[in-house]
TrEMBL record:
Upper classification of the organism: Bacteria, Pseudomonadati, Pseudomonadota, Alphaproteobacteria, Sphingomonadales
Provenance organism: Sphingomicrobium lutaoense
InterPro entries the record matches: Cell_wall_metabolism_enzyme (IPR050570), Dup_hybrid_motif (IPR011055), M23ase_b-sheet_dom (IPR016047)
Keyword Protease set for record: no
CDD domains found in the cross-reference section: M23_peptidase (cd12797)
Coiled coil residues, start to end: none
PANTHER family associated with the record: MUREIN HYDROLASE ACTIVATOR ENVC, PEPTIDASE-RELATED
Superkingdom classification of source: Bacteria
Identification of the protein by name: Murein DD-endopeptidase MepM/ murein hydrolase activator NlpD
């Protein structure tokens, strides 16, 4: 009787710490009702699940992203390159280039790709504004980080992702739309105009101070 009680007690202790020895091997015990897993707090730069050089795989016809082609690559900062199939080494620094005949600085990078290529969110956040400007960025999306200190701006889209709406929570890699030439972009050179703005929490989506996305995505110093 005492031996049986000791056996039960030892088994209970081993089970409570999550391990048992089965046929000479340690076996991890998973509780029948494990603690719930909560989503990690999302940050302005990126999720914490992928490292530089990793890829996300996107289903070309599905929202949100799933494990399928084409791929989205992760830059050294943890931001996703926001056009599927474009690698960090393919990027060109156009941040300081002149626009409007030299009247203003570009303050963004142009990511060249064929019309219809998937555009994805570079980081987690909230879709703050879906906007159209005929003479400017055309079909565009503004995503603000949860701490309200960053805006990610995607412009010249051909179309928006199915069901995309203001107030929607997105993760890194969530589809936002397709590469296009809407607004004042050349029809012969479809591309994504991608900008990052540092924000004060109370500032509106149209405000902020531009930050060059190129070093964050490409891992190389600005060429401007």
């Amino acid at each position: 009787m005492i031996r049986s009680l000791l056996l039960v007690l030892i088994t209970a202790v081993l089970t409570s710490i999550g391990w048992m020895v089965w046929n000479g091997k340690e076996v991890r015990i998973t509780p029948a009702n494990p603690d719930p897993v909560h989503d990690a707090e999302f940050e302005p730069a990126a999720e914490r699940t992928l490292d530089r050089g990793d890829t996300l795989r996107l289903d070309p016809d599905a929202d949100p992203p799933t494990m399928a082609a084409p791929s989205v690559e992760i830059g050294p900062s943890g931001l996703a390159v926001p056009v599927a199939g474009v690698a960090p080494e393919d990027l060109v620094d156009t941040f300081t280039q002149a626009r409007a005949g030299g009247a203003r600085r570009h303050d963004a990078i142009d990511i060249m790709a064929e019309k219809g290529r998937r555009v994805v969110s570079a980081s987690s956040g909230i879709v703050e504004k879906i906007y159209f400007s005929k003479g400017g960025g055309g079909k565009s999306v503004y995503v603000r980080s949860k701490d309200k200190r960053w805006i990610y701006y995607y412009a010249h889209l051909d179309r928006y992702a199915r069901g995309l709406k203001e107030g929607q929570r997105v993760k890194r890699g969530t589809p936002l739309g397709r590469v296009g030439s809407s607004g004042n972009a050349s029809k012969r050179a479809p591309h994504l105009h991608f900008a990052i703005h540092r924000m004060e929490p109370e500032e509106g989506w149209w405000e902020g101070r531009p930050v060059n996305p190129y070093p964050l995505l490409a891992g190389r110093a600005s060429t401007g």
